Amino acid sequence: MKKLYELVSELGLENTITLDDIPNIDLYMDQVTQLFENKYNEAKRNEDEKILTKTMINNYAKAKLLFPIKNKKYSKEHLILISLIYQLKGALSISDVKVVLDRLNYKIEHEQLNLSELYVSHLELHDKSIENFKANINVISSDVNQEIDKKEDEDIEYLESLLLISSLINTSNMYRRLAERLVDEMKEEPNKN
User: Fold this and answer.
1) Are 140 and 164 in contact (CB under 8 A)?
2) Which domain of life is it from (predicted)?
3) pTM of the model
4) Phi, psi of 28 (to 5 degrees)
5) Which residue has the higher pLDDT, 154 or 133?
6) 129, 130, 133, 138: CA torsion to nearest 10
7) Mean pLDDT of all residues belonging to the chain
8) pLDDT above 60 for 1
9) Residue 140 and residue 131: Cα distance in Å, rounded?
């Protein structure tokens, strides 16, 4: 098994769409998909995986995850929303993503929010989450190694991988379940639009 820190470095966690990456002009759909493919290419699990497709964007628009597009061009605010959707859909259902973004879309449409400022906060928290993730990986790895030291087996590398995978999945599931509970609370909140 590769060293864990090598695998973490291959994940492309630092790759994000920043405000500097988003042009100050509206983009056509092909330009949007190309921007995301170029920025997140390193995060792909394999070459066949698509980061963002025209169909995905159309589905986001149909599901009203984005406020209406004008003249088939996507504004800076649309790109920020698509970036948020990209992050959220990794763990949440599309219907949950809609719940999370409904009020945000309303505020954007009615100019009640500076989306760029909010996005900068999102990116700062993203960077802190990477630091926390790396620290937590060290803790999980240490815990797994302690358990492995108790085992007497010829296939110790396999057992180490198995325990590491199960620990990572358990941690991931806990975060996802908490996020889903927060979405459920959003559903119960009175509509403040």
Assistant:
1) yes
2) Bacteria
3) 0.90
4) -80, 160
5) 133
6) -140
7) 93
8) no
9) 14
The length of the chain is 193
Separation CA 34–CA 30 (nearest Å)? 6
pLDDT in tens, 44-64: 888 899 999 999 999 999 999
Q: What is the mean pLDDT of residues 59-84?
A: 95
How many Å separate Cα 182 from the centre of its chain?
16
In this model, does residue 183 exceed pLDDT 90?
yes
190 conformational bin, left if phi > 0, alpha if psi -120 to 50, beta if neither: beta
Quote the tokens at residue 104: 């945000």
Quote the distance between the C-alpha of residue 171 and its chain's center.
16
